[in-house]
Design a protein that fits this description.
With 441 residues, the protein is α/β, with parallel strands linked by helices. The chain has 2 domains: 161 residues, Lyase, Ornithine Decarboxylase, Chain A, domain 1, CATH 2.40.37.10; 184 residues, TIM Barrel. Helix content is 30%, strand content 27%. Strands 4, 17, 18, 19, 20, 21, 22, 23 and 24 form a 9-stranded mixed beta sheet that branches. Strands 5-6-7-8-9-13-15-16 form an 8-stranded parallel β-barrel, surrounded by 7 helices. The chain has a 3-stranded antiparallel beta sheet with strand order 1-2-3. Strand 20 and strand 21 form a beta hairpin. Helix 5 packs across helix 6. The chain is globular, with a radius of gyration of 24 Å. The mean pLDDT is 96. It binds ligand LLP. The site of ligand LLP has 19 residues, from helix 10 and helix 11.
Amino acid sequence: MFLHGTSTVNNDGHLEIGGADTISLAKKYGTPLYIYDVALIRERARGFTEAFQKAGVKAQVAYASKAFSSIAMFQLAHEEGLSLDVVSGGELYTAIQAGFPASKIHFHGNNKSAEELEMALQHQIGCIVVDNFHEISLLKLLGKQLNKKVPVLLRVTPGVEAHTHDYITTGQEDSKFGFDLQNGQIEQAIKQVLDAGTFDFLGIHCHIGSQIFDAAGFVLAAEKIFQKIGEWREQFQYVPTVVNLGGGFGIRYTEEDEPLPPAHYVEKMIETIQAKAAELEIELPEIWIEPGRSLVGDAGTTLYTAGSQKEVPNIRQYLAVDGGMSDNIRPALYQAKYEAVLANKMAEKADKTFSIAGKCCESGDMLLWDVLLPEAAAGDTLAVFCTGAYGYSMANNYNRIPRPAVLFVEEGEEQLVVRRETFEDLVSLDLPLKYKVSHKS
Ligand code: LLP
């Protein structure tokens, strides 16, 4: 069993996170419950920021807030000196409510509406990562209307698609995001942005994938971009001052995963970009990155209460918990794998195989298959590790199950940062039928 961050086992045989007894937290706040180990989030953030500082390179580490968005999380990101990547009006609104400095917010998305863009410009956010020609037109208009120079990066698809240990390179990438780097699209976009005179064209962005365990894909993407930078200098007399290589740094969900320390990726990126900038004899651009999962993923644990069991003789022992795909859709959606323990029986031998079922009315609502646990009974507390990224943020109300509460724990103290949804919350958006239905007898 692998315990992440500050997790330990206390004298009662209970799982402790951030110095807090998870069984006491489950009793006090109910389950399902998301618990974040704040010290681990800080450690991960510093892993990235300090690697840039050490190298003396100008950089921004933007937290990809889609991994887990909440006011407290954004405030923690700010405390750690991070910038913020948002992808919707809702995430932007949350950031503004959190008091996050607008100048450090980057706005992503492949179909930002005119309203969302206007909101971003009104707040004077740091930059808009422009994804397509439609967006260039919208921003040209808005820039003129608001009499503002719009700070932008242009997002490219570099023809490098990375996932775990592999990457594939293609001449042209079949992706809904960004301007193709190879087929002339990006040059068309650069021309439009330069000609408009309404943009502050900061540089180039790319994002090559997620759960990546190797720096090679990032290096290759950077090389491809720099090859183009040489051409753009000739063609447009333009040289980017920012190169953003996106996020995607892998984390350890199960023992099969072998993540690299944040500093490793950062060092490889810096090495490559320094060498390429020197080759072209241009000033070193600022290097921006956007980690999401690697900042919050392994800091998150979900607690559930065990309930019913079903034995399918000679096949499987199902153990059902009080949540499921409503609080973590990743197993159902991506066949994502996790590790789990019985948080109240940490001292007992894990020698029985269970498959953990959610409570939603859907056969696909399974959280874990064939996990070793001690003998389990109703009332036990199941802890699923590494649920901090894309867990709560993708939670939903399927079967009208209220979304869980979220706690931050640090140095033995817990803080409720998202309260549990109530049944009243669930019906609060509903409006009654306008006309009385006439029933035929
Ligand atoms: N930047 C861009 C432009 C992105 O699209 C993403 C993730 C990130 C940064 C952050 O990537 P990360 O460091 O978190 O891997 N729901 C899926 C993940 C979707 C990722 C979408 N984009 C999951 O649960 O695995």
